[in-house]
């Protein structure tokens, strides 16, 4: 029998990006752009569902080795070029591993953008933890930075 538990964690990632907030926002809001940076490098990152609007859902599924992960999002608040707030859960091989609240803040800074990503997570049954999620999010933000620099 699986021992049930919840571990909580919060992290904040800050970056300065060399493009204006509208460009960063578009990289999150446009499915064609988002698939170029969000997800596993070299993988099929096209979501099965993508409704970028308040109350909209985004759903994707991907493989890492023999492990299948799902990412199921509900957009809670969107202010164009300023913020995105969403809740999401993740599963691993069908087992729910976390439920999170994430916010993306975009602030004009000179000719660029100050990006703040804050996440509050509930990590379930020892299957995930705050440090692993932070590392994964740092990697995704790095992919976003690379995409924005190359586009």
From TrEMBL:
Cited Pfam families:
AHSA1
Give all residue intervals belonging to the Activator of Hsp90 ATPase homologue 1/2-like C-terminal domain.
Answer: 19-145
SUPFAM superfamilies of this UniProt entry?
A: Bet v1-like
**InterPro entries for this protein:** ASHA1/2-like_C, START-like_dom_sf
Q: Record's family?
A: Belongs to the AHA1 family.
Could you identify this protein by its name? Polyketide cyclase
- The organism of origin for this protein: Paradevosia tibetensis
């Amino acid at each position: 029998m699986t021992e049930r538990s919840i571990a909580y964690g919060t992290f904040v990632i800050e970056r300065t990006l060399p493009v204006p907030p509208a460009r960063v926002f578009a990289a999150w809001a446009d499915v064609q752009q988002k698939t170029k940076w969000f997800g596993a490098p070299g993988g099929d990152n096209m979501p099965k569902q993508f409704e970028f609007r308040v109350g909209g859902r985004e759903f994707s599924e991907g493989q890492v080795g023999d492990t299948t992960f799902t990412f199921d999002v509900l957009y809670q608040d969107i202010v164009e070029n300023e913020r995105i707030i969403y809740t999401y859960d993740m599963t691993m091989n069908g087992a729910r591993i976390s439920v999170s609240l994430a916010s993306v803040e975009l602030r004009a800074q000179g000719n660029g953008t100050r990006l703040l990503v804050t996440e509050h997570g509930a990590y379930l049954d020892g299957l995930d933890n705050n440090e692993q999620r932070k590392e994964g999010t740092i990697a995704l933000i790095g992919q976003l930075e690379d995409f924005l620099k190359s586009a």
